[in-house]
Each structure stands twice: as structure tokens, then as C-alpha cells.
Amino acid sequence: MKKILILLIAGLVIQSCKKEESSPALASITVVNAAIDVAAAKAYASDKQVYWSAIPAADAVNFASSKHFGVFTGSKNVIAVNSADTTKTLYRNSSEFNEGGLNTLFLCGQTGSYEGVYLADEVLPNYTEEVVGIRFINLSPNSPAISVNLTATPTVNEASGVAYKQKSEFKIYPASTVTTGIAFQVKNATTGDLLAKYNLPATAVSPYTTATVAQARLKNVTLVIKGLVGGTGTNAFGVFPVPHY
């Protein structure tokens, strides 16, 4: 009986090890929807065809927002469509997903010219002090090149000459002493005209309750320029945050 019990335990241990060995490695992709007039987008990264109806409505990425998804490693097709009409492709390409890789797909453009900015295997800065890293990406299709400054220092550029589909590098800002947020001004880089204001809040403010100075300590945030210069309503020129891990 004792011998049988030992054999059973050994078998379970071997089976457990095999399961661990066969567990697929994972990467991640963050999908950001800044595509004009696309109220919600569905996206996937897979080596197989995926039926859009099988993707829950809750997994759609609303305009001016983002969602994080896990992806198995390997070569995958990355595809995004308009949720309201899945025959309308917003982005299609293939990409290699490496274990632990951080990938981001920024959907942008407008009717007739939807496209994406894809950032593969990003190495996001790591911090050992109480700061937050912030960068800007310009996804406004009719925008001029922009400059960005802190409201407190309007003549000092935090980023400059950021044209459509371009991004700035991460800059660090103190986080431990911030009580009212970090306030920015977005301007026409050539004329200096003010185009938008944005304040990364110290604590949660709807609808972006996961992008605050408090939650971004030791992490990074991308501030996305969206909409159209001169646009109104949903298409108004503005800024929204994308928090990173």
C-alpha cells in the first residue's frame, strides 16, 4: 500500500511539472481608440481567425479610452475594426509577440484614412523615487505640430514639434508632493496659440479613474492628443490619459 501511495504522489508531481512546462508564455497589448467617429473599436491579436461576434461588447474600446489585453507569444495578426460595422477595418498588420513584451496599438485617423501607430516591445522607464513619467502622442489628424508646457511655466516647453502620429519621450514629474494635479497647456508649435488644457489629477476623477498622479507613482502615463482642431462635441480637440503598468 505504501509503495502504491508513493507511486501515485510521484505521478501527480510529474503531471504537475508537465502542466507547468506547457503553460504558454504571455505578452500584452494596450489598445487605444483615438479614431475619429469610431464610438467603439474591437481588436484582437491571434494567429487564427476570430469572429467579431465572439468578442464581448465589454471588450470593445470606447473612443478616447484604452484597454489592456493579454496575448500568447509568437507571430500574430493584429486587427482592429469599428464595433458598429465590423466590415470597416481600422488597422491590420502582423507582429511578433515576445514573452513579457509591452505592446501598444494607438488607433487614429478619420473616415477614409483610418490607421494606427503600433509600438512593439516598449521598454518603459523604471523609477526608484516617487515620480511619474509622462509623454505625449499627437493623434489629431488635422493638428499642426504641437508644443506642450506646464501651466506654471508657460514659456518652457516640456515637448515641442510633436506632429501627427509622433510621440515625445517620457519626462519625469514629482508625485509625492502633488495635491492639485499636474497641469499642461497644448499649443500650436509654430504660432504659440493655445489649443487645449489638461490636468492629470492628483486623485481619481471620472471618467478616467485609473489615471491619476497617485496611481501613476513609479509608473508612466501617455497623454493622447485627440479630436480635431475646431471640432465640437466628441470630436473636440483635447487630451485623454492612458495609464501603463
Could you outline the blueprint of secondary structure elements for this entry?
Elements: H1 2-22, E1 26-33, E2 40-46, E3 61-62, E4 65-72, E5 74-82, E6 85-97, E7 102-108, E8 115-119, E9 131-138, E10 146-150, E11 157-162, E12 171-174, E13 182-188, E14 194-200, H2 213-216, E15 220-226, E16 238-243
Parallel strand pairs: 1-7, 9-15
Antiparallel strand pairs: 1-4, 2-3, 2-5, 5-6, 7-8, 9-12, 10-11, 10-13, 13-14, 15-16
Explain what you see.
The chain contains 2 helices and 16 strands. It has 245 residues and is mainly beta. The chain folds into 2 domains: 24-123, Domain of unknown function DUF5300 (Immunoglobulin-like); 124-245, Immunoglobulin-like (Sandwich), CATH 2.60.40. A hairpin with a 5-residue loop joins strand 13 and strand 14. The longest helix has 21 residues, at 2-22. The chain starts with a helix and ends with a strand.
The largest sheet is: 4 strands, mixed
User: Which residues form runs of ≥5 with pLDDT under 50?
Assistant: 1-20
Question: Any idea how many domains?
Answer: 2
C-alpha end-to-end distance: 52 Å
Task: Give a quick precis of the structure.
The chain is mainly β. The chain has helices at residues 2-22, 213-216, and strands at 26-33, 40-46, 61-62, 65-72, 74-82, 85-97, 102-108, 115-119, 131-138, 146-150, 157-162, 171-174, 182-188, 194-200, 220-226, 238-243. It is 10% helix and 44% strand.
Summary tags:
245 residues, mainly beta, Immunoglobulin-like, 2 domains, 4-stranded mixed sheet, 16 strands, disordered N terminus
